[in-house]
Amino acid sequence: MLQQLLEPTPLPPSIKANRIPSGSDTYNEVLDFLYDEAEMLDNLRLGEWAELLTKDLEYNAPLRHTRSTSQFDQTYSRNVQHLHENYGSMLMRVKRITDTKSAWGEDPPSRIKRLVTNVRVYRIDDSDDLKVESYLLLTRSRFDFDYFDLIPCVRHDILRREDGALKLARREILLDQVVIGTPNLGVIL
Amino acid sequence: MDRKSNPKLSDGTLLSDLINLETREVKMRALSDPELFELEMERIFAKTWVFLGHETEIPNKGDFVVRDMGSDSVLMARGADGEVHVSLNVCPHRGMKISTHDVGNTMTHVCIYHGWAFKPNGDFIGAPVEKECMHGKMMTKQELGLKKARVAIYGGLVFATWNIEGPSFEDFLGDAKWYFDTLWCRTDKGMEVLGPPQRFTIRANWKTACEQSASDGFHVLTLHRWLSEVGPYRKPGSEGGGGDLTPEMYGTEVYTAHAHTMRCIELDRKIRRLTGKDPSELSIKEKLEALPPPGITPEMLPEVLRRFSDDQLRVMAWRPPQVGNFFPNGLFEFVYIPSPDGVIGVMALHAYVPKGPDKLEFVNWILAEKDTPPELKAKMLRLGVQLLGTSGMVEQDDSDTWPHQTLAAKGAVSKHITMKYQSMYENNRLEGWPGPGDVGDGFTKDDTQWRWWEYWYELMTAEN
Ligand code: FES
Ligand SMILES: [Fe+2]
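Above: the input record for the complex with FE2/S2 (inorganic) cluster. Below: its predicted structure, written as tokens.
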């Protein structure tokens, strides 16, 4: 009961038989969606990005633990997470950046590249939504620091067609690092 | 304070050259000097009580988590006796790390190097090939256990120290206990963590975060100003003069001998808004019903009322401790956040773990009372994640200042610049304030943070 309240709705599985082949129209449309999304975010067009979100959005980033090989599936923790957002809270995060003069954690903003690869698209049984898995490598450069903060992750998305256009309904971000190597996740993944 | 030792750095600088007790200044160099860092690990983190986590993280026998006491990795485990044990996570054989996992359950911790095995309480079980006695005969099995720390559990919080014969935990808390009881010991069943802690790295010296955690009220006005611009504290007109955070800065600040400090922020405005009544006309019980402490519902209140003295209840209903620190590297937040669902309390604990002179690990636990209804727990968790920790909209602004301070501490000229703590309470101790400790009343000041540095200096100059 408590666990259910604390944790996000489980994502539908990625079923091999439901795989939508690379190069197909749907696949290309999804790819364009992900590329355009990355471009908007890299260029601080956050208001525009927020329009890609459905009102029932769930947006999560579980914690990670180092455990043995046999416990690999237990390396995620989904009660306390790094991000645990809905549409309203995501909008608040966007407004903090766009509508205030004091979001110091990202002002001046980081220079960021969101490199999206390994995209796989699946139909979901009994639904018109699409399940999309992708790798993301986010590189973050701040101030005159000579290093980049790297945030590699896998994203499990649910995309839904609304008024003819694809929108983001769910995103789960599976980070590689147990101890996140950037001073905050004030950037959108 | 009798100074028994005054450490000398290799260029001849004395520790006393870096701090001016009269003018309340600390030279930037003190923030990030590598030699001082080594001393801090020995004289502070290997000496005082250090916060490691919460006992509800390891509810079952054999459960363990790996944590840090300063620069040392430790195992925090529940033993066969049901008690929490803390031992050095280093093999007494040749120094391999005993557990390379973050969390797990086992009654036998086996070192992967040569196979020595240990109980959750640190006792040596044996080495492989028992009959060949690979650990030799020069030392007894009792002598070959993991190095054990002394443990204290307080309100479910786990603290440990290497100072086996040193002051008791009660003594370490001192006057802070009177207040901390109203945070961590509010219900019969106690608190629980809502999950494992968030962890992330900031390239900054641990003291940048910790001196701030000693109740720096001023930084909220500027560094966290966005809160008044779109956040939960933005108020159209009536309260706080339309987006001004200044009213949040009034209250009582408490600082104690061992540098545990807190900001007790006044609730009167919130209670007036919630009830439409003048708080001075309400009883303590009525005030607590209108605005219960974080994680407490009106149904849970009778229990809370029973557990505390009238004086403590008065503080809880009027100016409860909301943010503060426990020395050396812990921070607590028991805050009241306006939200569309009413005021929601958020309870969080942080540890700022030193990872070398220029790096810290930020560890963030989110908690609730065990008896808090599940729906409220879920709301507390979400708000906690949204405002605090890794992605927290409030705390992400802190994470840029600390690295810049740490860099400035390296400059040939800027390392001689001083950090100043010269804003002082002139009207100590509000008439009728019922709690112990040093107390300042009114608008936030620097006394709490200065106490942090005074105690840091006291420990750094203490003879071993
Ligand atoms: S180092 Fe642990 S058994 Fe040898
Ligand atoms: Fe802060």
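Notes for the reader.
The mean pLDDT of chain A is 96.
The pocket of FE2/S2 (inorganic) cluster (ligand 1) is lined by residues B 91, 93-94, 96, 111, 113-116 (CB under 6 Å).
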